[in-house]
């Protein structure tokens, strides 16, 4: 009988130790599940944000190849100032159709490089291939309408840099798209597009994701 009492005295601490170890193992497993869930959510948000940025590139291209007339939601036809230089008293930025119009755009921009998402840089900005540069330039960007993005206002922007082609009458367009995710993710895409002889077709020359 004394031996049974002695064995029982060892059994209880052993059982408690096993239960403690099992609890720790359960907590570690739950923590790993939580970490994996957070990583999956972050990865999914990053992927959604990249898809959004790709859609912004298409929105910017539609802006580039737009026409001088625009139809409002009520069906009224109005002048599209983004494709009309206007007269010398006007100051809005626009997509130029000739070198003389490009010179006018440069004059209207003054010391600025971009306004309302239309850019005409005098030289290549060395930081323009870094994501952080564009994240600080949203004040000069074209904001994507809340109707065109599922995440509402202030979720996506784009810039179109216009460069005259050497020994040609057309232009090269470098499009930069910035999209913010639901969490803290953000994506900056940059692509180069050139127009064909027709007014509404062209070719993508490059496409890449910007980093720092």
What does this structure look like?
The protein is of the alpha+beta class and 212 residues long. It has a domain at 48-65 and 99-209. It contains 3 helices and 9 strands, in the order αββαββαβββββ. The strands form 2 sheets. Strands 3, 4, 5, 6, 7, 8 and 9 form a 7-stranded mixed beta sheet that branches. A two-stranded antiparallel sheet has the order 1-2. The longest helix has 63 residues, at 2-64. The protein is elongated and about 95 Å long. The mean pLDDT is 84.
Strand content: 15-25%
Helix run count: 3
Largest sheet data: 7 strands, mixed
Structural class category: alpha+beta
The poorly predicted ranges are none
Helix content: 25-40%
Shape: elongated
At a glance:
The protein is an alpha+beta fold. The chain is built from three helices and nine strands. The chain has a domain at 48-65 and 99-209.
Salient structural properties:
212 residues, alpha+beta, seven-stranded mixed sheet, two-stranded antiparallel ribbon, 23% strand, elongated
